[in-house]
Design brief:
This protein has 5 helices and 29 strands. The protein is mostly beta strands and about 400 residues long. The strands form 7 sheets. It has a 5-stranded antiparallel sheet with strand order 10-11-12-14-13, with no helix packed on it. A 4-stranded antiparallel sheet has the order 1-29-28-27, with no helix packed on it.
Length: about 400
């Protein structure tokens, strides 16, 4: 594959404040599940909501060029407008979800009757979670419960409006934002998950909504049941703090990234460690810097079709990995990366940086093989144990359980 190309760069529109270390850092970026919106926690207690996709010409501009003209054109066409959400606190975590259409007779603040819309949850420095209506930029409600920074947020991908929050108070909390979860006291907190001894950095719900993975400043990640909200197992294998995790689109694989410069790929059903991807310094292979930087990882994410991974590390590189290879297939130089996320329909990645910027990079475009499409379809509803129980040849079982690479 070709090396990632920088398509565009967004920069904060305010002067940077230095009274708080993270006030100018982009700790979180997010695309809405339908790909229609992009959110960016650009420091300064502000979230930018940008309608997506940008015009093709806009994405291909050099980062220095301004987009005022196309914004004016967008307004004249009557399309959605960029919004600024004033959160009042430093924003750490972001997560989108679709809000179901309101029915006649209901007084739902989020949607007009019969029209579904998007909501955005923001995790804040004071432990508050604020939930916003994306189309209008209005604050809908706040969730109270955490005692410290809400570091990460994850909505169940099935549209159930179950939200999981991860916090520096060492807990995860499960919230029900559906109409069934509403009471006179507010929105229902379904469960508090305790088990971590350190700040919880990351949480990820599997696409089939059966599992939750959480990563804290510990050498093991925790895997939870989203049905019983109990601990399934500890995933032990890293030599330093685990800081990021993500499930493959078919829920058959889980990846964890650590300060030990390794990504470990797990079978979440069995707890088996399938492979380790080591972030080796490039030395003189690519002369981006004469210095050698640590390869401590910051973020890992799967591509939408499940054949690639992206990682961001402290050695100032964005790496793209093919699922079946142990070495990266592409690199791009980026400064002080903190987070990364694929566009839901593939084709490019958004990365956030310590100086509050967001960068958009091209990624390898891939046509999935019929074999992989079949595997993905089967693994979406079959666990590893169910695959192993099928009356099929051993090699086919190995392929279906990702044990052939």
């Amino acid at each position: 594959p070709e090396e990632p190309v920088l398509l565009a760069e967004l920069k904060p529109g305010r002067s940077q404040r230095y009274d708080w270390k993270s006030s100018c850092e982009t700790w979180s970026v997010a695309f809405s599940p339908d790909g229609a919106w992009f959110a960016w926690s650009q420091g300064h207690c502000v979230v930018k909501l940008i309608p997506w996709p940008l015009e093709e010409a806009e994405l291909c501009k050099s980062p220095e060029r301004k987009s005022r003209g196309s914004k004016a054109e967008a307004r004249s066409r009557g399309v959605a407008k960029e919004k600024t959400l004033e959160c009042g606190q430093i924003v750490w975590g972001l997560a989108f979800s679709a809000w179901p259409a309101a029915e006649a007779g209901e007084t739902d603040p989020a949607c007009a009757v019969g029209l579904p819309c998007q909501i955005l949850a923001t995790g804040l420095n004071d432990g508050l979670i604020k939930v916003w209506e994306v189309q209008t930029g209005h604050l809908l409600f706040s969730l109270l419960g955490h005692q410290d920074v809400v570091r990460d947020l994850s909505f169940a991908p099935n549209g159930s409006l179950i939200l999981v929050s991860a916090s520096r108070d060492k807990t995860l909390r499960v919230w029900d934002l559906s109409r069934d979860g509403r009471s006179m006291q507010g929105w229902r907190q379904v469960q508090v998950l305790s088990g971590h001894m350190q700040w919880v950095y990351c949480c990820s719900i599997s696409p089939d909504c059966s599992m939750l993975c959480s990563a804290a400043g510990e050498k093991s990640a925790l895997l939870w049941s989203m049905r019983s909200y109990t601990l399934i197992r500890r995933l032990q294998g890293h030599q330093s703090s685990v800081v990021s995790c993500d499930f493959s689109p078919d829920s058959a694989l889980l990846v964890t990234a650590s300060y030990d410069a390794c990504v470990i790929m797990w079978d979440p059903y069995t707890g088996e460690r399938l492979r380790t991807l080591r972030h080796v310094p490039l030395h003189s292979a690519v002369d981006y810097s004469s210095e050698l930087h640590t390869s401590s990882l910051r973020s890992v994410c799967f591509s939408p079709e499940g054949l690639y991974l992206a990682t961001v590390a402290d050695d100032r590189l964005l790496r793209i990995w093919a699922l079946e290879l142990r070495s990266p297939v592409a690199f791009a130089p980026m400064t002080n990366g903190l987070c990364c996320m694929y566009f839901p329909h593939g084709g490019f990645i958004a990365t956030g940086t310590r100086d509050g910027h967001v960068q958009f990079w091209t990624t390898p475009r891939v046509l999935s093989s019929l074999k992989h499409l079949c595997r993905k379809a089967l693994r979406t509803f079959l666990t590893t144990y169910q695959v192993l129980a099928l009356p099929i040849p051993r090699k086919l079982k190995e392929f279906l359980t990702y044990r052939t690479f």
